[in-house]
């Protein structure tokens, strides 16, 4: 039969593991609120996204069991992020590039 | 066509006693079916209906354009005509067409599966399609929408007087049908292949369906959210693209084309898969460069997501982004070209027979080449500035969408009709129709390249008198084309009761679907096949004929 | 293509025992569970691209009108947003525990954790209602005599609020759908439909619920925490 990788769901996480991740998520939430009060200029946005990404990875890897899933599933998750990045990055390139253009004044 | 047994006796084929069509007869058994084959038939009926509606709008357009003045339609009405033509043809015919009909019917048979991965979801996809279609019909009955199928803001979100939200809902709901179909197919292909059927033993049609499904799953959600944003702006007056608030209408175009460009690959990739199957069967030869064709399908699906900005060259998009999009657009032509060369290499020194499916396949090769190459012209920013929004673009995309996708759809219908219905259609009429469609198509759209290059804008119901001859040629061609499409409708329906009985494998083709009876049994394979051969093993069959007593086996050489 | 004489037997005449949850078109439960899981992950993929459109628009306008976004964000209740973040994260944990209970076949635990998840989801929506009502009272809903009197350009602040309502609104719709699905799971669990062999719907719904949490994990800092301290 088609593709018979290791089976997700046969790995049963421990209670402790979940509680540790939960605690980390709460701490990171507090961190992101705390950092927002410090003026870091443009790095505020960077930090916010970075912390959110770490929280997201914790949820994806442990709560969604991606860490213990077949590589096919990991590929699907990676594809999602990759495609989102294509859309965001290339569109952003348009807007950034508009600033580089010299628009002549009138005809 | 009958099977010739080894003793020279011509055997008579019979329709099998029990198959998927006669297993149950009630309306309920059809409307609640979970059989992928029946879902395919439901889609075939639905999209044929929408093709008729889209074609009617096309007739209105070509009738109006036969004269330079506005005599049939006012400006607003004309805008509605081309908008509805685009919406119906793209969202309700082309995008479902080959995937929803043949992907559903044939693909699971090709991989030796009993059904798709999620049969109930499959039926739900069809119901969503019908639900979306209802919105489309409602839009039409209430006066249509006049924004162009591209729904550009702020006209669509603020200034249009048409039924924008209804039309947006139609496309939005149809989009979900598409997403669920694509998801279903991806899981089916990953998880339900018969034992021994590795990825590189799959028929190329399955590769085409997989690549198409990738695009459906990754791209369609973006048009969904785009339509939501546009409808929210229109309905709730929440500014998103509104320039008076500092919003950017070009942002809508980015979001719209991020899906709609890959969408054109949704329309063409299944067609290319069909052409591979038909050429293999009617040249009785392994498709040349199988691996390259397979990988080119995936490349087109992936690369197709990097080129959407070529629709925005003159919109105010930055030139630097334009350069990047221009370059990648030229690259994406390469995998398509690889396919064309490989198909030609397959035909070379093949044992070619010119039945209707093959005629359509040959037409596809020529017409898609023209369409694809003119696409490369448009990919060049300098040329696009001159030709954007002219009939050159209209001709380009009709060459690929009608000359390509619709032609491939006709090839698929004619190739698998015997499998689906158990009957053959009349050969002579099918060839005549193929020629009429080819001739009518070229007469309709080739003049549009010329008149577009000369500067005739698209989406206008009037034009300078000097272009009337070319427009009349185009409208005449459209009439021939219309008749060309009506003829198969007639003989195909006729054949269901009166056509010669086809038997399991009238084309003597290679593939799991041809090992089943025509029509196939309700549950597909009584015993799950184990695949050992390479795909398209035509050579082997002629060398080693297998004759089974008392059994209809399609592999007799 | 030749068909081998060896076959994988699934003759309908000798109908070996099939639990009700084993669908006919699958050879075995492993294949069925794999397919269901892949299907749900692919659906997550589509949701990422769906919300991605919002994030695209948001990021473009935030970079162009940063000050307006800062000003607009100041009127959002950071405490309520933070509270909701904690609520959703907790509901994710309880959902994970519900799935774990399903793996271990503990029906009463499944029911308990699902109920807690449901309650937390409800709490999230109550807070959202409070926030939306506050916006309504202060004329901050675009399209309904939007009135901005604080610092910042009213036009582009309106853009910020447009995105605020669209993104949290769409997210809220997903929470509501999630609550409906939890109720469905509660009913089926109570009817003893799930076993240690078959709990895929709970597991796959769990994936959906975690996704809802994930979207909020990004929405919270991006909408509520721009420019820090409120004046």
Structure description:
With 107 residues, chain A is an all-alpha fold. Chain A has helices at residues 15-36, 43-63, 71-98. The radius of gyration of chain A is 21 Å and the shape is flat. In chain B, helix 12 runs antiparallel to helix 13 (356-379). In chain C, 49% of the residues are buried. Chain C has 6 helices and no strands. Chain C has helices spanning 29-64, 66-74, 78-103, 107-137, 154-190, 200-224. Chain C is 71% helix and 0% strand. In chain C, helix 1 (29-64) runs antiparallel to helix 5 (154-190). Chain C is mostly helical and 231 residues long. Chains in contact: A-B, A-C, B-C. At the B-C interface, helix 8, helix 9 and helix 10 of B face helix 1 and helix 5 of C.
Estimate what percentage of residues of chain A fall within beta strands: under 5%
Instruction: Write the H/E string of chain A, N to C.
Output: HHH
The residue fraction in helices of chain C comes out at over 70%
- Write down the oligomeric state: heterotrimer
Radius of gyration from the alpha-carbon trace of chain A, in angstroms: 21 Å
Q: Biggest sheet of chain C, open or closed, and with what strands and sense?
A: none
Low-pLDDT residue spans of chain C: 1-14
* Count of structural domains of chain A: 2
Write the CATH architecture name of chain C: Up-down Bundle
State the gist of this model:
Chain B is mostly helical. Chain B has helices spanning 27-31, 36-64, 75-94, 97-105, 107-110, 119-141, 155-159, 164-191, 204-236, 249-283, 290-303, 319-347, 356-379, 381-387, 391-421, 427-453, 468-498, 538-543. Chain C has one domain (29-224): Four Helix Bundle (Hemerythrin (Met), subunit A).
Please write out the topology.
The complex is a heterotrimer of chains A (107), B (557) and C (231).
Chain A: H1 15-36, H2 43-63, H3 71-98
Helix pairs in contact in A: 1-2
Chain B: H1 27-31, H2 36-64, H3 75-94, H4 97-105, H5 107-110, H6 119-141, H7 155-159, H8 164-191, H9 204-236, H10 249-283, H11 290-303, H12 319-347, H13 356-379, H14 381-387, H15 391-421, H16 427-453, H17 468-498, H18 538-543
Helix pairs in contact in B: 2-3, 2-4, 2-6, 2-17, 3-6, 4-15, 6-8, 8-9, 9-10, 9-11, 10-12, 10-13, 10-15, 11-12, 12-13, 13-15, 13-16, 15-16, 16-17
Chain C: H1 29-64, H2 66-74, H3 78-103, H4 107-137, H5 154-190, H6 200-224
Helix pairs in contact in C: 1-2, 1-5, 1-6, 2-5, 3-4, 3-6, 4-5, 5-6
